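Request:
You are asked to prepare a plain-text protein record giving the amino acid sequence and the backbone structure tokens, at your earliest convenience.
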Amino acid sequence: MERINRNRAAVALAVFSFVMIAAMAVIFMWEPASPITSRKRGVIGVIEIQGVIEDTEYAGILSAAVREAIEDESIKAVVLEIDSPGGTAYLVEQVYLDLLELGEKKPVVASASMALSGGYYLAVTAEQIYVQPTSMVGNVGVIGVGPGFLVPSEFTFESGPQKITGFSPALFPFNITKALDSFASAVTEGRGIRLNLALSELKRGGVYLGGEAVNQGLVDEIGSRQSAISYAAEQAGLETYTVDSLVARVANTTVTVNLEYPSIGELNKANPPPALYYLYMPRDVVMENGAETPDIALSEQTTGSGFQLMNGPSNTDPDAVLNSKAILYAPYYTQFTGWGTEFTDSVKSLLDKAKKPKFKTTYYKNGAATVDALSGLTGYGLIVFHTHGGVDKNGNILLSTGEVINNASLNKHLLKYLTKQLTSATIHGKTYWCIKPKFISSLNGTFPNSIVYAGACSSSKTKTLSSAFTAKGANTYYGFSETVYGWFDKKMADQVFPKLITENKTTGESFTPGQKDTHVKPAYFTMDGNAKTYFKAGLINGDFEKGNLTGWSKQGDGRVISKLGYINPWEGGFMGIISTGLGYTESSGSISQTFWVDPDNTTLTLKWNFLSEEFMEYVGSQYQDYFEIKVIDEQGKSEVIFRKAIDDIANGYTLKKVSPDIVFDKGDVYGTGWQFFQWSLYPHAGTTVTLELSCGDVGDSIYDTAVLIDLVTDIN
């Protein structure tokens, strides 16, 4: 038995030795296909195509980046990061042809936040195009600026009819058609069977949101920049990779691009006509260069000669809100009402009942709370938002509108989106336009010492929005520091507005600091700006020293000026002017203001100066321009308290010829000089009235009349 065991042990040892020798042989004979460190590696090159491609230097940098991608063997694939509305046609085509060559050698993928016109022309060179949901895509088309005409002279000659211009102006549109065909051909070749748009529709130049662009086959997928990079790496077979900006590499410095839309005039200066552009130009930008001017310049009609700005002292109360117009903006009215947190109806009720002052309220609910509804925001003394809010990655406060983003609203608001005034947010499954601080900064006019209540989450988390309002003339801004409970927002509104509106307290007296909701990270109710702001009940800006018509409503030609020829304001640096249609309008002018008549200040006074071309033409005729003052009571009953027409003025005042220093349009101008008017408003004491001053035209529109107005006051 022992012998057998020894034999078995010997056999086992022999077998073990054989196995080990065989294994060693396999190890030494086998050679790996590549070492562990040889997993396929490479570089993903990124070419940033940003802004307007309008100069040869920038186009040259883009072409050099493409050449770098072709020649550097470590670069295995390229991602085009496109945020461009296009540019000059031949420069876009130059880069396009370079990218086609690159695409024959290496995978090219695009990630586009904006690929419009020439930007899209370049995008179609990619085998895969990624966009975000609100990316702007398309605008296939051409803008052409035709050649001028040779003005014949005895000093200028040309050997042929097109030697100087290069083109026949009459035939130049055919060149645009050929360029459009070339563009459309590039799209159809690049997109192939993925394109779902008919060629005729493609050539219309439509702009599409990211999701719709996917549906139409203009692009491939919704995805981020990283999605594009990952796809490029997959197509190149890379397991590990680094990402490198090729534009920065070839430029060896930071590249500054034009992110502002150039005007046609600026383009023509850089690239003299005839010229072609694959460039998206919003309607507003094009119109900026096409405004018509009247036969007699506005400056000549309203100021005559020797115009200069005179800034006199102002009697305007810096703490008083300078009008009694209110806007209530409630994009989620139905939703918040269902939650029991809507407060704008309560504010509306307070405003309707108020007498000191009497408010004129504009109320936007749900879908009516659009972007356009905010375009006249500087005309309101009280601004109340009740909406969803947030903060973007740059710290900008965002307030949602009630306007859903679709292709129609996209085309309407695209310029504001591209200039960073608007952005988008998805709320409960729908994507809405949101205003940014720059939207407020870009509004026309200035706020009349307004009070702003921003009833929204995080509306005062940073100072970006409150600063935009106060920098443009608003006095006080209420907001919330964090995400806020709806019940707390309503509680603060119910606390503040009765004090402001009914009790006529100041913004500081209406505010209690330190109040917060019950979130883990609580939202504090905050106030920025002037704590002494209040609503004034009496006449506002009657001396026009605000420099504009703050406090007044106008119809037709009503404005504020600092001088008319040699005529200065009666006092201070500004005066009002109403006319029968000077400047750009033929509409007779009026200004009006609604105010509460203080029982202690019931005397209305003002200064006026009547100037007209009709005195030498229509005295004694049916053509009688006039100046009229009217008071309208709370029941709408109207009383004319002053009216003077051409014959009245000619017979009752000493006229002075003021031409040629002051000119209107057709004839010599004569004026009354400054006159004084006074009227008792005692019958209206303790009530609200509307004062209306108008300059009217009877029977003709040839000869013009203007009335200067200053120092409209209600005194004891």
User: Anything to note?
Assistant: Residues 553-715 form a domain with the Jelly Rolls fold (CATH 2.60.120). The first helix runs from residue 2 to 29. Residues 303 and 564 are 4 Å apart (CA to CA).
